[in-house]
Design brief:
alpha+beta; 5-stranded mixed β-barrel
Length: 251
């Protein structure tokens, strides 16, 4: 028998029977025989033949292919140790960070990434012994380090809402505040603006999405808040004009 007992975005608790039959069980689920159950409190996601549950709360659980933002916390002989907000530390090997052959006997890794640096990486591997391997090679900005800006952390399950349909929510925030924003699937968000006030405003909007992601009309409220604050900044002489959104930049 092939049957799905839930719908996309249904709220489920651990032990909820999700599907039965030749489905794949994704994150937040476990399988017994041909039946797939939820292992966390979260929202159902059915994609092709994979059934997953996105946790409402809790730490980031990596998946291969995820793009994440991380912080270098240690430098070893031939690799770096990286905090990505997961229950386990991640590793970045020199061959996964730079192009070409590197003589590690003659290379000071601190000149590439040093402790405290913020990087943008992809999860290359995550195995059953909880070893997480990252890769910055081929990533935008060469993986970093991301200079300046601020790091804000949101619940990983809220990342899709922050990005919005087709990037609509994050583009709304970027275009109105004029900031550069990189969203990691681990819930770490890097924000960099030409003015500190605009950076803070973008962060305020991001945190509002994190708090109110489950509510209706959020895009309109975020836009209203941003425009109101921008008008205040204009009155204070911090900015000259309030940016006008072009058609298609709103959700």
């Amino acid at each position: 028998m092939r049957k799905i007992f839930v719908k996309n975005k249904d709220l489920v608790v651990p032990g909820t029977l999700l599907a039965q039959g030749p489905f794949k069980n994704g994150r937040g689920t476990f399988k017994e025989g041909s039946r797939i159950y939820s292992s966390v409190v979260g929202l159902v996601r059915v994609s092709n033949d994979t059934v997953s549950v996105v946790p409402l709360e809790g730490p980031y659980i990596p998946e291969v292919g995820d793009s994440v933002i991380g912080k270098i916390i240690d430098v070893k002989f031939s690799n770096w140790i990286v905090d990505i907000g997961a229950p386990y530390q991640a590793g970045l090997r020199i061959q996964d960070a730079v192009e070409g052959r590197v003589d590690i006997l003659k290379t000071d890794l601190r000149k590439i990434f040093d402790i405290g640096d913020i990087i943008y990486a992809k999860v290359k591997a995550f195995n059953e012994i909880n070893q997480i391997d990252l890769m910055t090679k081929g990533m935008p900005f060469s993986g970093g380090p991301l200079k300046g800006g601020q790091l804000v952390k949101i619940t990983p399950s809220k990342v899709p809402r922050l990005i919005g349909k087709g990037g609509s929510m994050i583009n709304l925030i970027k275009n109105l505040t004029g900031t550069r924003i990189i969203v990691g699937q681990n819930g770490w968000v890097w924000v960099s603006g030409r003015k500190e006030e605009l950076e803070k405003l973008a962060i305020e909007a991001i945190l509002k999405v994190n708090r109110e992601s489950h509510t209706q009309g959020l895009t309109d409220r975020v836009k209203e808040m941003l425009v109101q604050r921008l008008n205040e900044l204009k009155e204070q002489g911090i900015i000259e004009e309030v940016p006008q959104l072009k058609e298609g930049e709103e959700e």
